[in-house]
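Quick one:
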Amino acid sequence: MSVHYHPFSEALFDDPWPIYRRLRDETPAYYLEEFDCWFLSRFDDVWNAAGDPRFLAGEGVTTLELLLGQRFPTPGTGLASLDPPRHTELRRLLAPAFLPAAARRLEGPARELVRRFLDEELPRGELDVIRDLAMRLSVRVACLILGLPLEDADLLSGAVNRSFDREPGQRGQTESGQAAGELMRDTLAKYVHERRRGRGRGEGLVDRMLGAELGGQRLSDADVVSNLSLLVVGGTETLPKVFAGAVWQLARHPAQRARVAAEPALAADAFWEALRLEMPTTMLGRTLGEDVPLHGTTLRAGQKVMFLWGCANRDEREFPDAERFDVARRAPRILSFGQGTHRCLGHNVARMEGRVLLEELLARVPDYEVVEERAVRLRSEFFRGFAALPIRFRF
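Output:
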């Protein structure tokens, strides 16, 4: 009996791993006529395709656009939907804010924020590691990088969260999710409008983009908002889910948790392993610019291709005993930040944030239990992981 895969299957939302394993083993290039789309599940295939210029981003990169043909009113051109050479030029403009030196400069402010949040939450004997810690940190670090007012941080993170709302039986984004996305973009557009007219000035990426020329032309306000939206979502949504996954895995492996608490230098390794095993983005895609032979078949120009990131990160061909969480694994390469031209700009900052969060939490609460009955898992074709993860402890 051949494997049956569908990206909107409820069974896949519940437990994707047995299906993913069969995809990797039996049909690593899986075709669905409904979408005229190929789904790649093996690590090497995804790694190679993500860096292959024949797989074009300019035709769209999101599951909704590629699979459902949904086009929401998002004027402007963002980094994720560009191919070289325009992508290269825009990435060069944005990259300095995310280099290792920039992450090091942000570590002190990030650590102060985490310590403040812990001071506020620990006396209760319980906290939600997403809502009370990681989301509060990630959106504020994103605001610092972008040059956005910190007083808007919680508004932005709330809008990002709601934009990924899903309803059982409905494919893609809900009306409330679309409205939340529009609220985020409207908030950013208002801020760009004010900065364009000289009200306020800063050192963040807003000002860098407003003052830049690409191909001899200034970026439009719509272009700036499009890129800000991408960076706000990327900077605030995935880090909390990975951190929650790390906290959950460490609770399941108390000996490893005790080791990380006793040796804070291992926090970076623990977060790296959580990035591999708990990657929240299930898939992103490209459009083929030309025919590509793969696994005895031909992927045709114009067809869509989805990279199954989380599936590929558990490929036994790349990772021995791939389902096992091991803080000492130190995998030399993973797909959690993408690969090639579109590798995540913020990977240095995200790794710093995850490390700091684990170091500070385990320094104050080396022993905790997950409140399983109140943990909430996402059910979405696009994201997996926790939407809420309360932990309980003595303090």
